[in-house]
């Protein structure tokens, strides 16, 4: 057996494994988004992925492990050092709108985050790990970064909840440029304005 034949045989199971993992994660995201964490079952996810439930357990261990993998999120936050400081709010809102539009993973995480402790913890982890360092680099006093990041999150997640999860008609109907015009000044204030009372 030559080297190319051996490599082909070795890579075939790897490709099948990757395909199976992708199918499981896609099904899990859909089920978590539609049913929530508590009601989504390994059996339903496996059925949607067209595999045996034991395969889900083999790859992810349990539902909590599957959920963590399904909603592993990189917000791909922009480098705000490359934009003028007074445009940081606009850049951040624009980025989040681009990220949320049609993103089933973020929608699933938000749906589960408002109904389940594990989902809420995962959401906090994403924002603390990714948004907080960005805010810390922008705000006048890094000791205020956690409060400012929480306020920025309240605007961005509030928008996401009303636009992508609850689907308020007046929120869904807004053009992204309108949303940016409304939210950017508030987010900018949270990022860079003097702390109230100082």
Show the helix and strand layout.
Blueprint: H1 3-39, H2 42-49, H3 53-60, H4 63-70, H5 88-100, H6 104-113, H7 117-138, H8 145-165, H9 169-172, H10 176-192
Walkthrough of the structure:
75% of the residues lie in helices and 0% in strands. It has 198 residues and is mainly α. The protein folds into 2 domains: 3-70, Homeodomain-like (Arc Repressor Mutant, subunit A, Orthogonal Bundle), CATH 1.10.10; 80-192, no CATH class. α1 packs across α4 (63-70) and α3 (53-60) crosses α4. The mean pLDDT is 87.
* Poorly predicted spans: none
Structural class of the helices, strands and pairings?
mainly alpha
Radius of gyration, Cα only, in angstroms?
A: 20 Å
Strand content: under 5%
Count all strands and give the number. Answer: 0
The tally of structural domains comes to 2
Order of helices and strands: HHHHHHHHHH
Rough outline:
elongated
Number of helices: 10
Helix content: over 70%
Terminal-residue CA separation: 76 Å
Average pLDDT, to the nearest integer? 87
Largest sheet: none
Question: How would you summarize what this structure contains?
Answer:
With 198 residues, the chain is mostly helical. The chain has helices at 3-39, 42-49, 53-60, 63-70, 88-100, 104-113, 117-138, 145-165, 169-172, 176-192. The protein folds into two domains: 3-70, Orthogonal Bundle (Arc Repressor Mutant, subunit A), CATH 1.10.10; 80-192, no CATH class.
């Amino acid at each position: 057996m030559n080297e190319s034949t051996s490599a082909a045989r070795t890579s075939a199971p790897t490709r099948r494994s990757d395909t199976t993992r992708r199918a499981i994660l896609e099904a899990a995201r859909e089920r978590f988004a539609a049913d929530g964490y508590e009601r989504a079952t390994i059996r339903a996810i496996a059925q949607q992925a067209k595999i045996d439930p034991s395969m889900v357990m083999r790859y992810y261990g349990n539902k909590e492990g599957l959920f963590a993998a399904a909603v592993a999120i990189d917000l791909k936050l922009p480098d705000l050092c490359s934009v003028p400081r007074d445009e940081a709010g606009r850049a951040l809102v624009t980025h989040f709108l681009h990220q949320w539009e049609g993103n089933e993973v973020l929608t699933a995480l938000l749906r589960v985050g408002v109904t389940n402790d594990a989902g809420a913890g995962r959401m906090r982890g994403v924002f603390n790990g990714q948004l907080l360092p960005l805010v810390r680099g922008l705000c006048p006093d890094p000791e205020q970064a956690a409060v400012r990041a929480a306020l920025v999150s309240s605007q961005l997640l509030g928008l996401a909840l009303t636009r992508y999860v609850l689907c308020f008609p007046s929120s869904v109907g807004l053009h992204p440029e309108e949303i940016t015009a409304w939210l950017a000044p508030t987010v900018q204030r949270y990022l860079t304005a003097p702390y109230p009372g100082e």
